[in-house]
Amino acid sequence: MVNFCSDNATGASVEILRALEAANGGTAMPYGADDITARVAARLGEIFETEVAVFPVATGTAANVLALSVMVPPYGAVYCHREAHIHVDECGAPEFYTGGAKLIPLPGAHGKLDPQTLEGAITGAGVVHAVQPAAISLTQATEAGTVYTPDEVAAIAAVARRHGLGLHVDGARFANALVALGCSPAEATWKAGVDALSFGATKNGALGAEAVILFKPAPGMAEEFGYRRKRGGHLFSKMRFLSAQLEAYLADDLWLRNARHANAMARRLGDGLATLPGVALIHPVEANEVFARLPEAMIAGLLDDGFAFYRWGAPEACEVRLVTAFDTDPQDVNRFLTAAR
Amino acid sequence: MVNFCSDNATGASVEILRALEAANGGTAMPYGADDITARVAARLGEIFETEVAVFPVATGTAANVLALSVMVPPYGAVYCHREAHIHVDECGAPEFYTGGAKLIPLPGAHGKLDPQTLEGAITGAGVVHAVQPAAISLTQATEAGTVYTPDEVAAIAAVARRHGLGLHVDGARFANALVALGCSPAEATWKAGVDALSFGATKNGALGAEAVILFKPAPGMAEEFGYRRKRGGHLFSKMRFLSAQLEAYLADDLWLRNARHANAMARRLGDGLATLPGVALIHPVEANEVFARLPEAMIAGLLDDGFAFYRWGAPEACEVRLVTAFDTDPQDVNRFLTAAR
Amino acid sequence: MVNFCSDNATGASVEILRALEAANGGTAMPYGADDITARVAARLGEIFETEVAVFPVATGTAANVLALSVMVPPYGAVYCHREAHIHVDECGAPEFYTGGAKLIPLPGAHGKLDPQTLEGAITGAGVVHAVQPAAISLTQATEAGTVYTPDEVAAIAAVARRHGLGLHVDGARFANALVALGCSPAEATWKAGVDALSFGATKNGALGAEAVILFKPAPGMAEEFGYRRKRGGHLFSKMRFLSAQLEAYLADDLWLRNARHANAMARRLGDGLATLPGVALIHPVEANEVFARLPEAMIAGLLDDGFAFYRWGAPEACEVRLVTAFDTDPQDVNRFLTAAR
Amino acid sequence: MVNFCSDNATGASVEILRALEAANGGTAMPYGADDITARVAARLGEIFETEVAVFPVATGTAANVLALSVMVPPYGAVYCHREAHIHVDECGAPEFYTGGAKLIPLPGAHGKLDPQTLEGAITGAGVVHAVQPAAISLTQATEAGTVYTPDEVAAIAAVARRHGLGLHVDGARFANALVALGCSPAEATWKAGVDALSFGATKNGALGAEAVILFKPAPGMAEEFGYRRKRGGHLFSKMRFLSAQLEAYLADDLWLRNARHANAMARRLGDGLATLPGVALIHPVEANEVFARLPEAMIAGLLDDGFAFYRWGAPEACEVRLVTAFDTDPQDVNRFLTAAR
Q1: Do C263 and C331 form a contact (C-beta atoms < 8 A)?
Q2: Do D90 and B129 touch (CB under 8 A)?
Q3: What are the chain A neighbours of C317 within 8 Å (beta carbons)?
Q4: Is D39 helix (H, G, I), strand (E, B) or coil?
């Protein structure tokens, strides 16, 4: 079956599975006191070229909400895009982990927050009746398959700084964004003003591994994160098996190679679709997702032919989302495009 | 290094690593809609011989606190042994997931709750000033390395029923208890009155996999569990990699074989130590843990020799905990006993 | 000073103060086991002509969020108007008391929810990634000073029933709405499909007293409310002093007389302003609030003259809110209108 | 009926009722922006001779748990006596308001914490599996009717300081303790190391009014308290009616006079009972409560005679609690003692 439903319908990179085997020899101290975990933290410090606190966890939701929980008080407000995963796809996990903070969903073209809308939405600071502005969260690459440039991130960070807010990035597809940008990890994040990053690996080749990265955390913040991770049930006893995934993910640029392939497949899909009559791309194809409006007959035909993908938006909108991944077979893209014709 | 610190210092069974590889082919629908997850649920139904709702998660803490969260209101009370993992080793996770319930720690010989103490402690039902009795949680095998017989579980369940409480079992070492008992999984659990089981695999050969099993859940309970697992950040997108661990764990009685080995190693350790002058076993050795009082010189010597294990209890108590596992080398046990002499 | 800032800038009705004195004789059993509390519950049952569970509390926020807390799970969604007090003026109290539910703010003319918008917004039921639709909350009279007719309430209740949601009414100004409607309390509430009412008295003559009224509550719901009120810190030991306020409020139709006066004063204000050049009423004046667009010079002049009221909306919008109350002096209204000319 | 059930079965001091009437003239800005609230804060600063942040609330539970909520993280531990009101009589409110902290109940003679027991119980700092030591809470006067001397408070505060913990005092009966001690309010609190005080008035003559007093609060702490009070539903719109109670309570030493009377009545009761055959006082009578073991026939006879009071402890223990108050009639004490003979 050709499956463009999601990049989480894929398996894992062979290199990562092999790393699990390699990690399996002998005993290792639990709860992150093992060597591999230490090496991953050090490696991420090198990659991001700054002081970082690194916390492996197993799911993207855990990464996002634990990061927010050390940035936002229970009476805080988090500003995010109205299509943000944290707002629409985490069943209230941010509210749970923050102890009741409010997410303020905002509109924005192509899945992106824009500084003006943000600026207008941040209200109530110091007013006892209002939740208190605490953080901005953006998704990179976005839920619309687009990518913020470092300048765009910096413009949002400027709003955050002006109001004393933290800036979190949901990077479930951070690698896809990074290779699209062609800048350094540092330029895409803390140099542009990002405080905390959910560094995703699961969608891009891991079995289930993410890392929360706090850039130059304030005193006590990393320690607090540790307690919150534990009481969230996200501190792995056999941590080496999370960390081994991350180590292999980072080794030999596997993460970047995987992402480049996924992006290339999306581009091929998008370019191919764009040439077909009646097809319109809804968002620019910048990472590994294609959003398109298709003739209803084309959608129905593709589904009949056994291609798997999700309709998007309103039922009658004739919109689809197609997600490519590190292991997408170019022939499958060709087959899809052929069938679509 | 010979390491008796904990069964979570071990790696994983080869069979389980192989299952991950086998699970890696092709796409699979995410979030538990894959075939392996369905097979694991069915298999656990067979093994426990009743209707079950099964929820794979990755950590024991997640299993325990999600189970409690569907049994206990925010204003509820959970009765547990004062050494229970949920009380002393989960950094307040039960309070977090229940929304603020209170754990009532109780004494009891050899890590076990006893019905009379429980009966006396369950107070306040219907009193608006008091947290409301909601659940009992026991650990099987206990934190003292002992095992409740089905009759002992049933006696506690009788107290639970009399007060309208649910009965949860923290089964991080359930396999070790089961092979010690020699009864069926059903006899050890729901037939004795257990409502929910944290069915552990991590300590007994998995990389990181547990299953919450709800026995004949009340209407809506399983659905609620699903939402709570998601908002806890514990719903894996690539669920097949959790479920594959569990499937291999259950296949060909791997779980029971692993536990039998671990228990045998603990018995050998315990029996050997008991013959040494100045050594006293603190608890009966019934599963895979040995608690003993040793001459201080013996403890110091063993540590000097490079054996790894934890002192237990008060610093001056000269007590140690030794944990064996599925992969404990009998020669290491012999070496330890030789060195102790 | 003539003060139209809010009806909570007023004092209390003399009848209510006298009732406190009358309640002061001798001892009374605490926590609501007194006679006055029993009489208030019975009286509200008569007034609403059905089985009710009644819970006096001291603030409107407490009433709203405790009511929601027994209707909405931690992973639930509450649909409300985007100007709803629970969404913008309670500092996240609904999120706190529900354990993390999400409020879904919706647009709607003149402060009112409309059934079509609601119908389109209620999504995600049964989807594990989404917060689960749980309740609708409307404000009566609304934050725009308008009033839902029983038919309008019933149309919203029909949406609620279709989706299995509870219907809560924030009735901080319920008396003002009721006298505007001219229908019975029952017709305005449970006969139109309302499940729970925050029955306000504070803004309409009490010192600080509200009652949560659950109409024909499901089994266990009232008991749960009791525990939640206690652990919220809202169970008064000397409850008689809350209940005495409510008893006096209901006696001899004080609540209706007070509300009629407040509404009449608002009507007089609104009618008077509407005749002035450059003035436009923003919402129909149906209860005790007037929202109007005024020439900037008029606003500045009135403030200079010492009249107290709030600007509303954006700073440059030249909009004001004027709130009248049970004790508004008609001469003050006249003075205001004269000054405005 | 002669009622020794609790000091919350009493009404209010006439002076306090009169203050409500006096406060009722004209409009006042809501939510604590009124003059009376400002005066109360200033007056408490004078009385306690230091910088204070003052927050009126209506219930003792609200005062206690809001105070703890700004001192304790969700993963924190609060050490308290096992009979502490916050542990046994607030239905989990501390867990709710802190977001899930754990109360550690400790034994101690006559309702008092002792420094050695505390010292031994404070464990787990820096251990990620353990809740983190955060605060100590003691009750003054205690639930056993005894009083900590300033030196005893200072010894507990020394433990708190050594471990970096905050020190909270539940002062529901603070006035009773203070007049028993004969020291200054400052000596009994911050000079002995107290950080936050729940300053009770309800049990000692108010209708329902308490003040949380933060002594020299850390930067941001008072602001945080404000948000937490609001989202707890404890910010009164007509705050003047809470503050007026407190102002009258403090005026002309009413609070001290009331407490002196209550204490004297308890002493008279205790002294009288102690002379009776078969009667034993269980705790020293230091404030306004008497705990005594009585012959069963005496208890039954007194209840038959219509005296109201609570049995205490185990049903068969033949123990009673007798609480006196600001308005206890000395003749009622005499009648009780006569009947007891």
Answers
A1: no
A2: yes
A3: none
A4: helix
Would you call D221 an interface residue with chain C, using a CB distance cutoff of 8 Å? no
Within chain A, residue ranges assigned H as helices are 14-23, 35-48, 60-69, 85-88, 93-98, 115-121, 150-163, 174-181, 185-188, 221-231, 240-250, 254-274, 296-304, 330-340
Give the separation between CA B206 and CA B234, rounded to whole angstroms.
17
Sheet with C289-293, side-by-side order of all strands: C280-281, C289-293, C319-323, C310-312
Q: Judge if C307 and C172 occupy the same domain.
A: no
Rounded distance, CA D149 to CA D177, Å? Answer: 9
Q: Domain of A274: which CATH number?
A: 3.90.1150.10
Residue C166 and residue C36 share a domain: yes
Strands of the sheet containing A196-200, edge to edge, are A52-57, A210-215, A196-200, A166-171, A132-139, A76-81, A102-106
* Residue D196, both tokens: 């936050």
Instruction: Based on the fold, state whether residues C40 and C63 are members of the same structural domain.
Output: yes
CA D20 and chain centroid, separation: 23
**Closest to C170 measured CA to CA, from C135, C138, C215, C136:** C138
Contacts B74 to C, Cβ<8 Å: 99, 228, 231
D19: domain CATH number is 3.40.640.10
Q: Are B306 and B158 part of one and the same domain?
A: no
Residue D132 lies in domain:
12-253
CA–CA distance, D160 with D15 (Å, rounded to integer): 39
Instruction: Write out the DSSP string of C29-64.
Output: -STT-SHHHHHHHHHHHHHHTS-EEEEEES-HHHHH
Chain C adjacent subunits, 3+ CB pairs under 8 A? A, B, D
Q: What is the pLDDT of residue D179?
A: 98
> Which of B200, B219, B253 is at the close of a domain?
B253
Chains A, D: CB contacts within 8 A come to 37
Tokens of B113: 């709750």
Q: Tokens for D303, please give them.
A: 């209840």
Containing C323, the helix (H) or strand (E) segment is: strand C319-323
- D120: how many CB neighbours lie within 10 A of its CB? 10
CB contact under 8 A, D92 and B75: yes
State how many domains chain B has: 2
Q: How many CB atoms lie within 10 A of CB A245?
A: 31
Taking one residue from A and the other from C, the number of pairs with CB-CB distance under 8 angstroms is: 56
**CA distance between the termini of chain A:** 19
Q: Select from D253, D278, D294 the last residue of a domain.
A: D253
Q: Are residues B263 and B227 in the same domain?
A: no
Per 3-state DSSP, chain D is made up of helix, strand and coil in percentages (nearest 5) of 45, 15, 35
Do residue A258 and residue A229 come from a single domain?
no
Residue in D with minimal Cα distance to B61: D129
Who among C92, C103, C129 is closest to A75 (CB)? C92
The CA distance from A259 to A13, in Å, is 12
Contacting residues of C for A103, CB less than 8 Å apart? 102
Q: What is the ipTM of this complex?
A: 0.97
Q: Residues B98, B199: one domain?
A: yes
Q: What pTM, to 2 d.p., does this model score?
A: 0.97
Same domain, C226 and C174: yes
Burial B312-334 (b: 16+ CB within 10 A, else e): eeeeeebbbbbbbbbbbeeebbe
What are the average pLDDT values for consecutive 10-residue runs of chain D, which has 341 residues? 91 97 92 97 98 98 98 98 98 98 98 98 97 98 98 98 98 98 98 98 98 98 98 98 98 98 98 97 98 96 96 89 97 97 90
- The reported pLDDT for the residue numbered A273 is 97
* C residues 161..220 contacting B (CB < 8 A): none
Three-state DSSP class for residue B102: strand
**pLDDT per residue as tens digits for the range B8-29:** 999 999 999 999 999 998 889 9
Confidence of residue B314 (pLDDT cuts 50, 70, 90): confident
Cα B327 versus chain centre, distance: 18
